[in-house]
Write a sequence for this structure.
């Protein structure tokens, strides 16, 4: 019987490793499962994007491919397919609003993501009140707790989606969601989240703690 | 006494509106409070970005200015300040990983957002195991439930932040977070969220329901 050749490379496995081989170590290193090139990222926001069409009719669409992308100037990015009615509206007017729904409006927000503004007046159908921004040519939803008024800064063609980067000219919030120092509190916004892959919605959960603070114990 | 001239524009206020005037209606329309041009958007993700430096040392940074930006090719965007150590690493190697922490690692993730890779080996300090991606030149965190391996596609200079758009070449997940059809479940990822403005962290909350489904009741 030949002697077993152990080749652990740079790993130091100690005495317990005598029965292990390189393959076993490799498995430990690669124990995650490959799911392929997919959009699986945990939670994304659900933002409702407000625009005007050529006739000045307010329209809405739901964007989950979205997020913050710069602090100064303060900017958000929303990605849309060219096929959407909102795409042309943003290109034409260089403006959009981001409307953040509370979980009370999850059904309405979901409908906004199903229907097209070509076929239906989503504001009227959802009984939303369109408020014309006085900063950009775009409408926002009176009934939602938090809205951003955005001027288009950059348009990035990526593939199926085009990313629109908008500078936030103002944030408008319902008084009821404001906490200390007039800062909106996540519990009060009562926003909900989207889970790609599973295609499901979730609420915001419990408060954990302060950022740029919890980790300080490791500085010692 | 002159007759009161009622001018409600397109609004139909009915009989109860007889005592209202235009100013009152305007107030109703503008009852949101202006907070200024700030990053206040509800929740953002907390993604830990993995890179190698010139010496091949793995580094990490925390990104909350981040999100999905395209379905095909599947892409994510992360925004970094030029001053970060990771910025040069991504520019140099054209690759990064996105590591999604469970709430068990909120302190470690917070520390990653406080310290700089110029001063400290964050992998070693956090006792994270760096795994070299076999798809891109970037390391991922073995201890985290969900990781994306990304090839840099676009670099967009916005202002204080530069946005890096990366194509997801693979998603790797711990078996334990997989649900039906091998799709990760948000409850099991146990991710946490960041609230800009308040600068606080929150857990993911309760399941609400299925997307592209809840809104169908309005199609009737």
């Amino acid at each position: 019987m030949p002697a077993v050749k152990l080749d652990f490379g740079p790993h130091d496995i100690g005495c317990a490793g005598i029965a292990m081989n390189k393959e076993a170590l490799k498995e430990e290193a690669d124990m995650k499962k490959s799911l392929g090139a997919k959009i699986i990222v945990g939670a994304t926001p659900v933002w409702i994007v407000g625009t005007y069409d050529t006739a000045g009719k307010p329209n809405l669409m739901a964007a989950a491919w979205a997020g913050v992308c710069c602090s100064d100037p303060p900017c958000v990015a929303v990605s849309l397919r060219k096929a959407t009615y909102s795409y042309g509206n943003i290109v034409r007017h260089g403006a959009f609003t981001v409307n953040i729904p509370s979980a009370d409006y999850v059904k309405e927000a979901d409908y906004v993501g199903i229907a097209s503004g070509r076929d239906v007046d989503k504001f009227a159908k959802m009984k939303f009140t369109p408020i014309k921004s006085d900063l950009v040519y775009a409408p926002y939803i009176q009934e939602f707790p938090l809205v951003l008024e955005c001027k288009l800064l950059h348009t990035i063609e990526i593939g199926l989606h085009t990313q629109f980067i908008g500078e936030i000219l103002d944030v408008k919030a319902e008084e009821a969601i404001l906490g200390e120092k007039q800062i909106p509190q996540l519990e009060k916004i009562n926003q909900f989240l989207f889970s790609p892959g599973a295609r499901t919605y979730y609420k915001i959960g419990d408060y954990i703690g302060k950022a740029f603070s919890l980790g300080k114990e490791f500085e010692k």
